[in-house]
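>> received
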Amino acid sequence: MASMNLNRVYISTKARNNHYILAEFKPDDAFYACFDSSSACYERLSRQLFALCDEYELHNVHVIANDKLPVVRYHDEAYTMQTEKQILFFYNPKFHEAHQTYLNDGYQARKIRLLFLATGNELRANAATFHSKVKKVLDALKEGFSPIEPQFRVRDHQHLTYDLFAKAKGDKESYGYKLRALYPRYQARNCTLPEEYSEMTYATFNIPVSRAIKTEFQSQMRPSDYGQFYRTLEDAFLSSCADKQLNMVAMVADGRLPIVRSAKIDKSDTNRELQKLSFDTGSGDNQIYSLFNEANLVDTIRFVIVANDKDKKDMGYGRFMNHVETAIKRFVAQLPVNVEKQDINVRFFQHISYDY
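>> returned
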């Protein structure tokens, strides 16, 4: 029984689930040439897609044709916010439904993204069914666009978000998760995936630079010189991770949102809003990103801990997440954080992608 417990991570029953699938393709000149205009292309694509989604009971689906990256988060109220590089979707899977198209007048997208948001209850239990429905929609959509059928890159994203210190706030109820890898979970539920695929599993958490932190570290903060402060937090974070043999990590304190990718597919890159971090999960080498601008003090410092191939157990990623939780707790213990009042939200990510 003790061995079984090591392979489970006990998470508050108030944890929030998100599940979405992004199917994207790059339309070439031949594809656009089949339509009177790019807007006519998006209108036909949206019309056919939404009709198919009604047929297969997919109730929250969006067409993104303005080359912005979708970011999905849980929220009790449904709303969408756009920046120059991102579209942020906030929704509650239990209640919110929508079919929308996002484009810029006269703009021809380099990449068209179809975003499928899971709805209903028990998202993890129903994940394979949701994925199967999306595949059926994509099959029908490709057939409807023959002979110029698009070639999709399918990216399945699942998040589990919870306050690491929920018990300190009186929340005593928890559930033991094994956190099985997506591929065997889907195969066991008759959702067939290609043999060639990419998989990423990781956890993130944020530390707001609060008044208490500024006071505690004021001797390390000078106008336009916050390097010593950042390096102190970097050392504490890396030391906490090293104690649990977590060697693929990142600290991002430059105001950008970290996006984790496989080094086999994407190279690290950056723009004004996003920081793409590429990791080779098959390598045993340390892979560490520490990104900050000594001249600027950010509001929030973001941290990433990535699982390597050795962390992928038959039982799941429960052992990995137990190590992650221990590392975060050791790190937070070195900061002036009141865990009885302040949430430290951990987000556990599982991604799988393939060409379709």
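>> The longest helix spans residues 38-55.
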